[in-house]
Amino acid sequence: MAVLVWLTTTYLLSREPEKIDSIAVLPLITTNTDQNVQVISDGITDSLIDSLSKLPNLRVMSRSSVFHYKGREIDSQAVGRELKVKAVLTGRLVQERDTLVLNTELVNVADDRHLWGEEYERKVSDVLSLQQELARTISAKLIPTLSGGAKEKIAKQRTTNSEAYQFYVRGRTYQDALGGESLKRAVESFQLAVSKDPGYASAYAGMADAYGLLAFFDYLPTNETLRKAEEAANKAIRLDDTNAEAHASLGLVSLFDWKWQVAERELRRAIELNPNLAIAHGYYGMYLSSQGRLDEGLAEDKLELGLDPISQIANANLCGMYYSAREYDQSIQQCLKELQMYPDDPISHYNLASDYEQKKLYEQALEQYQQGVTLQGEAGSAAASGRAYAAKGWKGVLEKDIEVCRQRGTNDYDPFEVAVDYARLGEKDTAFFWLEKAYDGHRIPFFIKTQPQLDKIRSDARYADLLRRMGLPQ
Hints:
Elements: H1 2-14, E1 22-25, H2 35-52, E2 59-60, H3 63-66, H4 76-83, E3 87-96, E4 99-108, E5 113-123, H5 127-142, H6 148-154, H7 162-177, H8 180-196, H9 201-216, H10 222-239, H11 244-256, H12 260-273, H13 278-290, H14 294-307, H15 312-324, H16 328-341, H17 346-358, H18 362-375, H19 379-392, H20 394-407, H21 415-424, H22 428-440, H23 461-470
Parallel strand pairs: 1-2, 1-3
Antiparallel strand pairs: 3-4, 4-5
Helix pairs in contact: 2-5, 2-7, 7-8, 7-9, 8-9, 9-10, 9-11, 10-11, 11-12, 11-13, 12-13, 13-14, 13-15, 14-15, 15-16, 15-17, 16-17, 17-18, 18-19, 19-20, 20-21, 21-22
Protein backbone atom coordinates (compact mmCIF):
# COMPACT_ATOMS: atom_id res chain seq x y z
CA MET A 1 0.00 0.00 0.00
CA ALA A 2 2.81 2.40 0.90
CA VAL A 3 4.51 1.64 -2.41
CA LEU A 4 1.28 2.45 -4.28
CA VAL A 5 0.92 5.78 -2.47
CA TRP A 6 4.57 6.60 -3.17
CA LEU A 7 4.20 5.79 -6.89
CA THR A 8 1.01 7.83 -7.19
CA THR A 9 2.52 10.83 -5.40
CA THR A 10 5.70 10.64 -7.46
CA TYR A 11 3.66 10.57 -10.68
CA LEU A 12 1.54 13.53 -9.71
CA LEU A 13 4.52 15.63 -8.64
CA SER A 14 6.57 14.79 -11.71
CA ARG A 15 3.75 15.35 -14.20
CA GLU A 16 4.08 18.61 -16.10
CA PRO A 17 1.13 20.96 -15.64
CA GLU A 18 -1.21 21.16 -18.59
CA LYS A 19 -0.30 24.03 -20.88
CA ILE A 20 -2.91 26.78 -21.09
CA ASP A 21 -3.17 27.68 -24.80
CA SER A 22 -6.63 29.28 -24.77
CA ILE A 23 -8.43 31.64 -22.42
CA ALA A 24 -11.64 33.62 -22.01
CA VAL A 25 -11.55 36.85 -19.98
CA LEU A 26 -15.11 37.21 -18.70
CA PRO A 27 -16.63 40.63 -17.92
CA LEU A 28 -15.99 41.70 -14.37
CA ILE A 29 -18.93 41.35 -12.01
CA THR A 30 -19.97 44.56 -10.28
CA THR A 31 -23.04 45.20 -8.16
CA ASN A 32 -22.63 48.96 -8.48
CA THR A 33 -25.16 50.47 -10.91
CA ASP A 34 -23.12 53.67 -11.36
CA GLN A 35 -22.41 54.08 -15.07
CA ASN A 36 -18.83 55.19 -14.43
CA VAL A 37 -18.11 51.98 -12.50
CA GLN A 38 -19.56 49.97 -15.38
CA VAL A 39 -17.23 51.81 -17.78
CA ILE A 40 -14.22 51.08 -15.56
CA SER A 41 -15.25 47.41 -15.30
CA ASP A 42 -15.70 47.02 -19.07
CA GLY A 43 -12.45 48.86 -19.69
CA ILE A 44 -10.41 46.52 -17.49
CA THR A 45 -11.90 43.49 -19.26
CA ASP A 46 -11.31 45.00 -22.69
CA SER A 47 -7.75 45.99 -21.83
CA LEU A 48 -6.91 42.47 -20.61
CA ILE A 49 -8.32 40.88 -23.77
CA ASP A 50 -6.28 43.28 -25.89
CA SER A 51 -3.08 42.66 -23.93
CA LEU A 52 -3.37 38.86 -23.72
CA SER A 53 -4.16 38.69 -27.44
CA LYS A 54 -0.57 39.71 -28.08
CA LEU A 55 0.85 36.65 -26.29
CA PRO A 56 2.36 34.05 -28.61
CA ASN A 57 0.53 30.73 -29.06
CA LEU A 58 -2.43 31.76 -26.93
CA ARG A 59 -5.99 31.81 -28.31
CA VAL A 60 -8.01 34.55 -26.64
CA MET A 61 -11.79 34.79 -26.98
CA SER A 62 -12.91 38.06 -28.52
CA ARG A 63 -14.69 40.85 -26.70
CA SER A 64 -18.04 40.34 -28.42
CA SER A 65 -18.24 36.68 -27.39
CA VAL A 66 -17.32 37.15 -23.73
CA PHE A 67 -19.50 40.25 -23.30
CA HIS A 68 -22.43 38.04 -24.28
CA TYR A 69 -22.24 36.79 -20.67
CA LYS A 70 -22.20 40.23 -19.05
CA GLY A 71 -24.75 40.67 -16.28
CA ARG A 72 -25.69 36.98 -16.23
CA GLU A 73 -25.31 34.41 -13.49
CA ILE A 74 -22.69 32.07 -14.92
CA ASP A 75 -20.69 28.97 -14.13
CA SER A 76 -17.18 29.80 -15.30
CA GLN A 77 -16.36 26.15 -15.99
CA ALA A 78 -19.52 25.72 -18.12
CA VAL A 79 -18.76 28.94 -20.02
CA GLY A 80 -15.20 27.76 -20.63
CA ARG A 81 -16.49 24.52 -22.11
CA GLU A 82 -19.00 26.40 -24.25
CA LEU A 83 -16.26 28.66 -25.60
CA LYS A 84 -13.84 25.71 -25.90
CA VAL A 85 -11.01 27.27 -23.87
CA LYS A 86 -8.72 25.76 -21.25
CA ALA A 87 -8.81 28.63 -18.76
CA VAL A 88 -11.25 31.32 -17.68
CA LEU A 89 -10.38 34.56 -15.91
CA THR A 90 -13.12 36.00 -13.72
CA GLY A 91 -13.25 38.97 -11.42
CA ARG A 92 -15.39 41.13 -9.16
CA LEU A 93 -15.02 44.92 -8.97
CA VAL A 94 -16.28 47.10 -6.10
CA GLN A 95 -15.89 50.86 -5.79
CA GLU A 96 -15.84 52.41 -2.34
CA ARG A 97 -15.69 56.20 -2.69
CA ASP A 98 -12.44 56.83 -4.57
CA THR A 99 -11.07 53.29 -4.11
CA LEU A 100 -11.41 50.26 -6.37
CA VAL A 101 -11.26 46.73 -4.95
CA LEU A 102 -10.71 44.05 -7.59
CA ASN A 103 -10.69 40.31 -6.90
CA THR A 104 -9.53 38.08 -9.76
CA GLU A 105 -9.28 34.34 -10.28
CA LEU A 106 -7.84 32.18 -13.07
CA VAL A 107 -9.54 28.76 -13.27
CA ASN A 108 -8.65 25.58 -15.18
CA VAL A 109 -11.77 24.61 -17.14
CA ALA A 110 -10.98 20.88 -17.20
CA ASP A 111 -11.18 20.37 -13.44
CA ASP A 112 -12.28 23.77 -12.05
CA ARG A 113 -8.88 24.04 -10.37
CA HIS A 114 -7.77 27.43 -9.03
CA LEU A 115 -4.64 28.45 -10.95
CA TRP A 116 -4.12 31.94 -9.62
CA GLY A 117 -5.95 34.68 -7.80
CA GLU A 118 -5.23 38.12 -6.37
CA GLU A 119 -6.92 41.06 -4.70
CA TYR A 120 -6.03 44.58 -5.78
CA GLU A 121 -6.90 47.81 -4.01
CA ARG A 122 -6.20 50.99 -5.98
CA LYS A 123 -7.39 54.55 -6.32
CA VAL A 124 -9.84 55.15 -9.18
CA SER A 125 -7.29 57.53 -10.68
CA ASP A 126 -4.82 54.62 -10.93
CA VAL A 127 -7.03 52.34 -13.06
CA LEU A 128 -4.77 52.61 -16.13
CA SER A 129 -1.68 51.52 -14.21
CA LEU A 130 -3.76 48.72 -12.63
CA GLN A 131 -4.51 47.42 -16.12
CA GLN A 132 -0.79 47.34 -16.92
CA GLU A 133 -0.04 45.46 -13.70
CA LEU A 134 -2.80 42.91 -14.39
CA ALA A 135 -1.54 42.33 -17.92
CA ARG A 136 2.02 41.73 -16.74
CA THR A 137 1.01 39.43 -13.87
CA ILE A 138 -1.42 37.24 -15.81
CA SER A 139 0.90 37.01 -18.81
CA ALA A 140 3.68 35.76 -16.52
CA LYS A 141 1.35 33.12 -15.06
CA LEU A 142 0.36 31.88 -18.49
CA ILE A 143 3.83 32.04 -20.09
CA PRO A 144 6.59 32.17 -17.44
CA THR A 145 9.34 32.32 -20.08
CA LEU A 146 7.98 35.45 -21.79
CA SER A 147 10.74 37.71 -23.08
CA GLY A 148 11.31 41.23 -21.80
CA GLY A 149 10.33 42.76 -25.13
CA ALA A 150 7.09 40.82 -25.19
CA LYS A 151 6.29 41.89 -21.63
CA GLU A 152 6.83 45.53 -22.57
CA LYS A 153 4.60 45.17 -25.62
CA ILE A 154 1.80 43.58 -23.58
CA ALA A 155 1.84 46.22 -20.86
CA LYS A 156 1.97 49.14 -23.33
CA GLN A 157 -0.35 51.90 -22.22
CA ARG A 158 -2.57 53.24 -25.04
CA THR A 159 -3.39 56.54 -23.32
CA THR A 160 -2.62 58.29 -20.07
CA ASN A 161 -5.78 60.41 -20.24
CA SER A 162 -8.54 58.84 -18.14
CA GLU A 163 -11.32 60.88 -19.81
CA ALA A 164 -10.18 59.78 -23.27
CA TYR A 165 -10.07 56.21 -22.04
CA GLN A 166 -13.64 56.33 -20.69
CA PHE A 167 -14.95 57.68 -24.01
CA TYR A 168 -13.06 54.91 -25.81
CA VAL A 169 -14.64 52.20 -23.64
CA ARG A 170 -18.11 53.69 -24.23
CA GLY A 171 -17.40 53.60 -27.96
CA ARG A 172 -16.49 49.92 -27.83
CA THR A 173 -19.70 49.19 -25.89
CA TYR A 174 -21.86 50.96 -28.49
CA GLN A 175 -19.96 49.22 -31.28
CA ASP A 176 -20.81 45.77 -29.89
CA ALA A 177 -24.53 46.36 -30.60
CA LEU A 178 -23.93 46.62 -34.41
CA GLY A 179 -27.11 48.63 -35.08
CA GLY A 180 -26.96 51.78 -37.18
CA GLU A 181 -27.67 54.19 -34.32
CA SER A 182 -25.33 52.42 -31.90
CA LEU A 183 -22.49 52.51 -34.46
CA LYS A 184 -23.06 56.24 -34.97
CA ARG A 185 -22.86 56.74 -31.20
CA ALA A 186 -19.68 54.68 -31.19
CA VAL A 187 -18.15 57.08 -33.72
CA GLU A 188 -19.18 60.05 -31.56
CA SER A 189 -17.56 58.46 -28.49
CA PHE A 190 -14.31 57.76 -30.34
CA GLN A 191 -14.30 61.35 -31.61
CA LEU A 192 -14.64 62.58 -28.03
CA ALA A 193 -11.78 60.29 -27.02
CA VAL A 194 -9.38 61.76 -29.60
CA SER A 195 -10.50 65.28 -28.67
CA LYS A 196 -9.16 64.54 -25.17
CA ASP A 197 -6.04 62.73 -26.46
CA PRO A 198 -5.17 63.47 -30.12
CA GLY A 199 -2.48 60.80 -29.97
CA TYR A 200 -4.85 57.98 -29.00
CA ALA A 201 -4.29 55.49 -31.85
CA SER A 202 -6.76 52.91 -30.52
CA ALA A 203 -9.58 55.46 -30.55
CA TYR A 204 -8.86 56.31 -34.20
CA ALA A 205 -8.79 52.57 -34.96
CA GLY A 206 -12.14 52.13 -33.23
CA MET A 207 -13.53 55.03 -35.24
CA ALA A 208 -12.27 53.43 -38.48
CA ASP A 209 -13.86 50.11 -37.56
CA ALA A 210 -17.21 51.74 -36.72
CA TYR A 211 -17.23 53.72 -39.98
CA GLY A 212 -16.30 50.55 -41.88
CA LEU A 213 -19.25 48.66 -40.35
CA LEU A 214 -21.60 51.57 -41.08
CA ALA A 215 -20.57 51.32 -44.74
CA PHE A 216 -20.61 47.51 -44.79
CA PHE A 217 -24.22 47.35 -43.56
CA ASP A 218 -25.33 50.34 -45.69
CA TYR A 219 -26.34 52.38 -42.65
CA LEU A 220 -24.69 55.45 -44.21
CA PRO A 221 -23.72 56.36 -47.81
CA THR A 222 -20.97 53.88 -48.66
CA ASN A 223 -18.34 55.95 -50.48
CA GLU A 224 -18.45 58.93 -48.12
CA THR A 225 -18.34 56.69 -45.04
CA LEU A 226 -15.48 54.59 -46.41
CA ARG A 227 -13.39 57.72 -46.91
CA LYS A 228 -13.90 58.58 -43.23
CA ALA A 229 -12.92 55.02 -42.26
CA GLU A 230 -9.79 55.25 -44.41
CA GLU A 231 -8.80 58.60 -42.91
CA ALA A 232 -9.22 57.34 -39.35
CA ALA A 233 -7.35 54.09 -40.05
CA ASN A 234 -4.41 55.92 -41.63
CA LYS A 235 -4.29 58.32 -38.69
CA ALA A 236 -4.16 55.38 -36.26
CA ILE A 237 -1.38 53.70 -38.24
CA ARG A 238 0.67 56.91 -38.35
CA LEU A 239 0.39 57.10 -34.56
CA ASP A 240 1.01 53.39 -33.97
CA ASP A 241 1.92 51.07 -36.83
CA THR A 242 1.42 48.05 -34.53
CA ASN A 243 -2.33 48.67 -34.16
CA ALA A 244 -3.89 45.58 -35.73
CA GLU A 245 -7.45 46.94 -35.73
CA ALA A 246 -6.41 49.91 -37.88
CA HIS A 247 -4.73 47.66 -40.46
CA ALA A 248 -7.84 45.46 -40.56
CA SER A 249 -10.11 48.46 -41.14
CA LEU A 250 -7.84 49.75 -43.90
CA GLY A 251 -7.96 46.28 -45.45
CA LEU A 252 -11.77 46.36 -45.48
CA VAL A 253 -11.81 49.80 -47.11
CA SER A 254 -9.38 48.54 -49.74
CA LEU A 255 -11.71 45.64 -50.56
CA PHE A 256 -14.52 48.08 -51.29
CA ASP A 257 -12.09 50.18 -53.37
CA TRP A 258 -10.96 47.11 -55.41
CA LYS A 259 -7.37 47.69 -54.24
CA TRP A 260 -6.69 43.99 -53.94
CA GLN A 261 -2.95 44.06 -53.21
CA VAL A 262 -3.38 46.73 -50.53
CA ALA A 263 -6.23 44.75 -48.97
CA GLU A 264 -4.14 41.58 -48.81
CA ARG A 265 -1.13 43.41 -47.37
CA GLU A 266 -3.12 45.21 -44.67
CA LEU A 267 -5.14 42.18 -43.61
CA ARG A 268 -2.10 39.92 -43.45
CA ARG A 269 -0.35 42.59 -41.40
CA ALA A 270 -3.32 42.80 -39.01
CA ILE A 271 -3.26 39.03 -38.45
CA GLU A 272 0.52 39.07 -38.01
CA LEU A 273 0.20 41.76 -35.32
CA ASN A 274 -2.71 40.07 -33.54
CA PRO A 275 -3.59 36.50 -34.56
CA ASN A 276 -6.50 36.68 -32.09
CA LEU A 277 -8.23 39.56 -33.89
CA ALA A 278 -11.30 37.69 -35.12
CA ILE A 279 -12.58 40.37 -37.50
CA ALA A 280 -9.21 40.45 -39.30
CA HIS A 281 -9.65 36.76 -40.16
CA GLY A 282 -13.19 37.51 -41.34
CA TYR A 283 -12.06 40.36 -43.59
CA TYR A 284 -9.17 38.26 -44.90
CA GLY A 285 -11.68 35.51 -45.69
CA MET A 286 -13.63 38.09 -47.73
CA TYR A 287 -10.46 38.99 -49.62
CA LEU A 288 -9.72 35.34 -50.38
CA SER A 289 -13.30 34.84 -51.58
CA SER A 290 -12.99 37.88 -53.86
CA GLN A 291 -10.02 36.18 -55.51
CA GLY A 292 -11.87 32.88 -55.92
CA ARG A 293 -9.80 31.16 -53.20
CA LEU A 294 -12.84 29.73 -51.44
CA ASP A 295 -11.17 26.87 -49.54
CA GLU A 296 -8.75 29.32 -47.94
CA GLY A 297 -11.61 31.74 -47.29
CA LEU A 298 -13.58 29.05 -45.49
CA ALA A 299 -10.56 28.27 -43.33
CA GLU A 300 -10.25 31.94 -42.30
CA ASP A 301 -13.96 32.22 -41.51
CA LYS A 302 -13.73 29.12 -39.33
CA LEU A 303 -10.78 30.70 -37.51
CA GLU A 304 -12.85 33.85 -37.01
CA LEU A 305 -15.74 31.84 -35.58
CA GLY A 306 -13.38 29.89 -33.31
CA LEU A 307 -12.18 33.17 -31.80
CA ASP A 308 -15.63 34.74 -31.69
CA PRO A 309 -18.22 31.92 -31.57
CA ILE A 310 -21.15 34.08 -30.46
CA SER A 311 -20.48 36.95 -32.87
CA GLN A 312 -23.32 37.81 -35.26
CA ILE A 313 -20.83 38.90 -37.93
CA ALA A 314 -18.64 35.79 -37.63
CA ASN A 315 -21.63 33.45 -37.86
CA ALA A 316 -23.10 35.33 -40.84
CA ASN A 317 -19.70 35.39 -42.58
CA LEU A 318 -19.39 31.60 -42.42
CA CYS A 319 -22.95 31.20 -43.68
CA GLY A 320 -22.15 33.45 -46.66
CA MET A 321 -18.86 31.70 -47.37
CA TYR A 322 -20.52 28.29 -47.54
CA TYR A 323 -23.03 29.82 -49.97
CA SER A 324 -20.25 31.21 -52.19
CA ALA A 325 -18.61 27.78 -52.14
CA ARG A 326 -21.92 26.25 -53.35
CA GLU A 327 -22.16 24.21 -50.16
CA TYR A 328 -25.81 25.11 -49.72
CA ASP A 329 -26.77 22.52 -47.11
CA GLN A 330 -23.93 23.61 -44.83
CA SER A 331 -24.85 27.24 -45.42
CA ILE A 332 -28.46 26.52 -44.42
CA GLN A 333 -27.31 24.72 -41.28
CA GLN A 334 -25.01 27.61 -40.33
CA CYS A 335 -27.68 30.27 -41.01
CA LEU A 336 -30.23 28.41 -38.88
CA LYS A 337 -27.66 28.19 -36.09
CA GLU A 338 -27.11 31.95 -36.25
CA LEU A 339 -30.83 32.68 -36.27
CA GLN A 340 -31.19 30.74 -33.01
CA MET A 341 -28.91 33.37 -31.47
CA TYR A 342 -30.04 36.38 -33.53
CA PRO A 343 -33.60 35.76 -34.77
CA ASP A 344 -34.01 39.39 -35.86
CA ASP A 345 -31.02 39.44 -38.21
CA PRO A 346 -32.36 40.10 -41.74
CA ILE A 347 -29.04 39.19 -43.39
CA SER A 348 -29.30 35.54 -42.37
CA HIS A 349 -32.88 35.38 -43.64
CA TYR A 350 -31.67 36.72 -46.98
CA ASN A 351 -28.81 34.22 -46.98
CA LEU A 352 -31.25 31.39 -46.31
CA ALA A 353 -33.50 32.63 -49.14
CA SER A 354 -30.51 32.51 -51.51
CA ASP A 355 -29.63 28.98 -50.38
CA TYR A 356 -33.18 27.73 -50.91
CA GLU A 357 -33.33 29.45 -54.30
CA GLN A 358 -30.22 27.61 -55.48
CA LYS A 359 -31.83 24.34 -54.31
CA LYS A 360 -35.03 25.34 -56.18
CA LEU A 361 -37.01 25.26 -52.92
CA TYR A 362 -38.86 28.41 -53.86
CA GLU A 363 -41.58 28.42 -51.19
CA GLN A 364 -38.94 28.24 -48.44
CA ALA A 365 -36.94 30.91 -50.28
CA LEU A 366 -39.98 33.20 -50.40
CA GLU A 367 -40.69 32.70 -46.69
CA GLN A 368 -37.13 33.66 -45.69
CA TYR A 369 -37.02 36.56 -48.15
CA GLN A 370 -40.27 37.98 -46.75
CA GLN A 371 -38.99 37.66 -43.19
CA GLY A 372 -35.82 39.56 -44.11
CA VAL A 373 -37.77 42.33 -45.85
CA THR A 374 -40.23 42.61 -42.95
CA LEU A 375 -37.40 42.86 -40.40
CA GLN A 376 -36.10 45.83 -42.39
CA GLY A 377 -39.43 47.59 -41.96
CA GLU A 378 -40.90 46.86 -45.39
CA ALA A 379 -43.88 44.64 -44.62
CA GLY A 380 -45.72 46.06 -47.64
CA SER A 381 -42.98 44.89 -50.00
CA ALA A 382 -43.02 41.46 -48.35
CA ALA A 383 -46.77 41.15 -48.97
CA ALA A 384 -46.34 42.32 -52.58
CA SER A 385 -43.68 39.64 -53.13
CA GLY A 386 -46.14 37.04 -51.86
CA ARG A 387 -48.76 38.15 -54.36
CA ALA A 388 -46.16 38.17 -57.16
CA TYR A 389 -45.16 34.60 -56.27
CA ALA A 390 -48.79 33.45 -56.28
CA ALA A 391 -49.23 34.94 -59.76
CA LYS A 392 -45.96 34.06 -61.51
CA GLY A 393 -43.83 31.93 -59.18
CA TRP A 394 -40.23 32.83 -58.32
CA LYS A 395 -39.93 34.84 -61.54
CA GLY A 396 -42.63 37.13 -60.20
CA VAL A 397 -40.67 37.70 -56.99
CA LEU A 398 -37.56 38.74 -58.96
CA GLU A 399 -39.56 41.05 -61.20
CA LYS A 400 -41.21 42.65 -58.16
CA ASP A 401 -37.76 43.19 -56.56
CA ILE A 402 -36.57 44.93 -59.74
CA GLU A 403 -39.65 47.15 -59.68
CA VAL A 404 -39.08 48.08 -56.03
CA CYS A 405 -35.37 48.78 -56.63
CA ARG A 406 -36.06 51.09 -59.57
CA GLN A 407 -38.66 53.04 -57.61
CA ARG A 408 -36.11 54.02 -54.97
CA GLY A 409 -34.42 57.40 -54.99
CA THR A 410 -31.08 57.97 -56.71
CA ASN A 411 -29.16 57.62 -53.46
CA ASP A 412 -30.96 54.44 -52.35
CA TYR A 413 -31.26 52.24 -55.41
CA ASP A 414 -28.59 49.64 -56.08
CA PRO A 415 -27.79 48.96 -59.76
CA PHE A 416 -25.90 45.80 -58.81
CA GLU A 417 -28.99 44.36 -57.11
CA VAL A 418 -31.01 45.04 -60.28
CA ALA A 419 -28.28 43.42 -62.40
CA VAL A 420 -28.29 40.31 -60.20
CA ASP A 421 -32.06 39.99 -60.50
CA TYR A 422 -31.88 40.16 -64.30
CA ALA A 423 -29.05 37.59 -64.28
CA ARG A 424 -31.22 35.25 -62.19
CA LEU A 425 -33.99 35.72 -64.74
CA GLY A 426 -31.55 34.77 -67.50
CA GLU A 427 -31.85 38.19 -69.22
CA LYS A 428 -28.14 38.56 -70.00
CA ASP A 429 -28.10 41.81 -72.00
CA THR A 430 -30.16 43.70 -69.42
CA ALA A 431 -28.05 42.23 -66.61
CA PHE A 432 -24.86 43.53 -68.23
CA PHE A 433 -26.48 46.93 -68.86
CA TRP A 434 -27.04 47.29 -65.10
CA LEU A 435 -23.63 45.81 -64.26
CA GLU A 436 -22.05 48.57 -66.33
CA LYS A 437 -24.07 51.15 -64.36
CA ALA A 438 -22.82 49.56 -61.16
CA TYR A 439 -19.24 49.54 -62.48
CA ASP A 440 -19.39 53.23 -63.47
CA GLY A 441 -20.58 54.12 -59.97
CA HIS A 442 -18.06 51.78 -58.28
CA ARG A 443 -21.02 49.89 -56.82
CA ILE A 444 -19.97 46.32 -57.63
CA PRO A 445 -19.21 44.42 -54.39
CA PHE A 446 -15.91 42.62 -53.99
CA PHE A 447 -17.55 39.15 -53.96
CA ILE A 448 -18.74 39.32 -57.60
CA LYS A 449 -16.32 36.62 -58.77
CA THR A 450 -17.89 33.95 -56.54
CA GLN A 451 -21.54 35.11 -56.47
CA PRO A 452 -23.73 32.06 -57.33
CA GLN A 453 -26.60 34.28 -58.46
CA LEU A 454 -24.48 35.33 -61.45
CA ASP A 455 -23.82 31.78 -62.62
CA LYS A 456 -26.19 32.14 -65.61
CA ILE A 457 -24.01 34.89 -67.14
CA ARG A 458 -20.60 33.67 -65.98
CA SER A 459 -19.68 32.08 -69.35
CA ASP A 460 -20.32 35.35 -71.24
CA ALA A 461 -17.17 37.14 -72.45
CA ARG A 462 -18.51 40.39 -71.00
CA TYR A 463 -18.31 38.89 -67.50
CA ALA A 464 -14.62 38.02 -67.89
CA ASP A 465 -13.98 41.53 -69.26
CA LEU A 466 -15.69 43.07 -66.21
CA LEU A 467 -13.52 41.07 -63.82
CA ARG A 468 -10.43 42.14 -65.80
CA ARG A 469 -11.34 45.82 -65.50
CA MET A 470 -11.87 45.38 -61.76
CA GLY A 471 -8.41 43.83 -61.46
CA LEU A 472 -9.75 40.43 -60.43
CA PRO A 473 -8.30 37.11 -61.64
CA GLN A 474 -10.13 35.61 -64.63
